[in-house]
UniProtKB/TrEMBL annotation:
Residues 18-147 form the RDD domain. GO terms for cellular component: plasma membrane. It comes from Aliikangiella coralliicola. The lineage of its organism: Bacteria, Pseudomonadati, Pseudomonadota, Gammaproteobacteria, Oceanospirillales. InterPro entries: Pra-immunoreactive, RDD. This is RDD family protein. The chain crosses the membrane at residues 28-53, 73-91. It is a multi-pass membrane protein. Keywords: Cell membrane, Membrane, Transmembrane, Transmembrane helix.
Length: 168
């Protein structure tokens, strides 16, 4: 269940402009680094656990590495960790690290944060970032991921959110 923003915050968000393609692209590039960091962390934690569990009977690390690389659950675990990072950012604050750097925010048309369900739908629709190209031809500058969950990427006014808490 998502927390509703105060009416004044919603009113202010509705008066901002929609994000142009170049700002979305810049934020996406920043967010690739954030996703890569989560990927490396998930990989490290997963490998550590795998090595600790198999330590008594594994002769070398190659056996563990081979077992993980052939297991589809390993790939699902890594991708789910990266997906959860983006979903969590969108639900909790409407922004990822890259979006904060470029003063962008994802919200519903009424200014509220996305729900968990909407954020998961958006994350699936935005895999690869190709859906963002759709905003070049959409009159309302929405990408396919925005259309999938009825969200908007807006440009926040300068100075907005300077008093915000850090993401973590």
């Amino acid at each position: 269940m998502s927390k509703k923003q105060p009416a004044s915050a919603t009113k202010n968000l509705l008066q901002v402009s929609l994000a142009p393609f170049w700002k979305r692209l810049a934020a996406w590039i920043y967010d690739l680094l954030g996703g890569l960091a989560v990927f490396i962390l998930a990989l490290s934690v997963g490998l550590l656990i795998a090595y600790l569990v198999t330590l008594p009977w594994a002769e070398n690390g190659a056996a563990v590495s081979s077992a993980l690389s052939n297991n589809p659950l390993w790939l699902i675990y890594i991708l789910a960790c990266v997906q959860y990072y983006y979903v969590w950012c969108w639900v909790k604050g409407g922004q990822t690290v890259g979006m904060r750097a470029w003063n962008l925010k994802i919200c519903r048309p009424n200014g509220e944060h996305l729900s968990w369900k909407e954020a998961y739908i958006r994350s699936i629709a935005s895999i690869g970032g190709l859906g963002t190209l759709w905003c070049l031809i959409d009159k309302e500058k929405r990408g396919l991921q925005d259309l999938s969950c009825d969200s908007r990427v807006i440009v926040l006014p300068k100075g907005y959110g300077k008093e915000q808490k850090p993401l973590i």
